[in-house]
Specification:
Blueprint lengths: L7 E6 L4 H12 L17 H15 L9 E4 L3 H12 L11 E2 L16 H7 L1 H10 L12 H18 L4 E6 L1 H11 L4 H10 L7 E8 L5 E10 L1 H5 L16
Parallel strand pairs: 1-4, 2-3, 2-4
Antiparallel strand pairs: 1-5, 5-6
Helix pairs in contact: 2-3, 4-5, 6-7, 7-8
C-alpha cells in the first residue's frame, strides 16, 4: 500500500529577525547577554527580514497555480508567522488561499537557562553546563528548562505524522526555524547524528532559504522523500534582497 506523504514539501526558515540582529551585535561586542527584551516567541522580523519574506513570497507566487503550495503551516513564533503571511499575501499559495495554519510543534528549540546568552555568556555564567555540553554534544545535551536536538526531533516526527494524515498528496509549505529545518532533514533523509551535525557545521541555514522535497516511489513502490534543493537563495538574489544566516537570539549555543 502506498505511504501517505505530501506530493511536495517545502521547508523555509523565517526571514532575518530582530533577534538575529541583536545576537550579531552582542557577538561583535564580546557581550555575555544578547540585548533584546522580548520573549523569543514575540521577536519580529527586521526590516530586511520583511524584504526577504516578500521576495520568497513572490518567488512562490510566480509558480503556476498547479505547482505552488496549497497548504502553509507555520511555527507560532511571530517571525515565522510574519514570513508565512508575507508568502501568502504575495500569492504564494494556490486554491482557496486559506490563512497559514499554526502548529506549536514547529516552534524554535527551547534554550531554557541559556536563553539570550552568547557562547561567551554561557561559559561565564554556567561553566559546568558548558563543559557538560562540550562532552555530550549539542545533539543530546538538554540545558535546564530547554530542549536537545533529539527533543525537537521527537515533536517534529509527530508534526510530520499530522501533515501526512491531513495533507497527503497535497503541496505543503512549512515555515519554521534554523534548528527545526536541520531536524526535518535528519528525519526525512534518515540521517544519523554525525551527518546532520556535519551539515550544520558546513554552514548556517539561510533566512528564507528554501528546502524542497519531492516524493517518488522507490524500487519497492514506497513513496520516499527526495531532496531537490537546500538553502536555495535564488528568490532573494533575483530581488536583490541581502542574504543572511545569523542564528536566532536564543541560539548562541545551538
Amino acid at each position: 500500500m502506498r505511504q501517505r506523504w505530501p506530493e511536495k514539501l517545502w521547508i523555509v526558515r523565517h526571514g532575518q529577525s530582530a533577534g538575529n540582529v541583536a545576537r550579531e551585535a552582542a557577538d561583535a561586542a564580546g557581550l555575555a547577554m544578547i540585548d533584546i527584551a522580548l520573549r523569543d516567541v514575540d521577536v519580529p522580523l527586521s526590516d530586511l527580514g520583511e524584504r526577504q519574506a516578500q521576495a520568497v513570497g513572490r518567488w512562490f507566487g510566480s509558480m503556476a497555480d498547479d505547482d505552488k503550495p496549497e497548504i502553509v503551516v507555520s511555527s507560532p513564533y511571530i517571525r515565522a508567522r510574519q514570513t508565512a503571511r508575507a508568502i501568502c499575501e504575495a500569492g504564494g499559495i494556490s486554491g482557496l488561499r486559506r490563512p497559514p495554519l499554526v502548529d506549536e510543534r514547529l516552534r524554535e528549540r527551547e534554550f531554557g537557562v541559556f536563553d539570550r546568552l552568547t557562547t561567551a555568556g554561557i561559559r561565564e555564567k554556567y561553566p559546568e553546563l558548558a563543559e557538560h555540553r562540550a562532552l555530550l554534544g549539542k545533539f543530546y545535551h538538554r540545558p535546564p528548562g530547554g530542549e536537545s536536538w533529539a527533543d525537537v526531533i521527537l515533536r517534529l516526527r509527530s508534526a510530520l505524522d499530522t501533515i501526512s494524515l491531513h495533507h497527503a498528496d497535497r503541496r505543503v509549505l512549512i515555515v519554521c526555524h534554523q534548528v527545526v529545518v536541520l531536524c526535518f532533514r535528519y528525519i526525512l533523509e534518515e540521517m544519523d547524528e554525525a551527518q546532520v551535525l556535519g551539515i550544520d557545521k558546513a554552514g548556517q541555514v539561510l533566512n528564507c532559504g528554501v528546502c524542497e522535497y519531492d516524493f517518488e516511489p522507490d524500487d519497492a513502490a514506497l513513496c520516499v522523500p527526495k531532496l531537490l534543493r537546500y538553502n536555495f537563495a535564488a528568490p532573494l538574489i533575483e530581488e536583490h534582497a541581502p542574504i543572511t544566516s545569523e542564528p536566532d537570539a536564543a541560539v548562541a549555543a545551538r
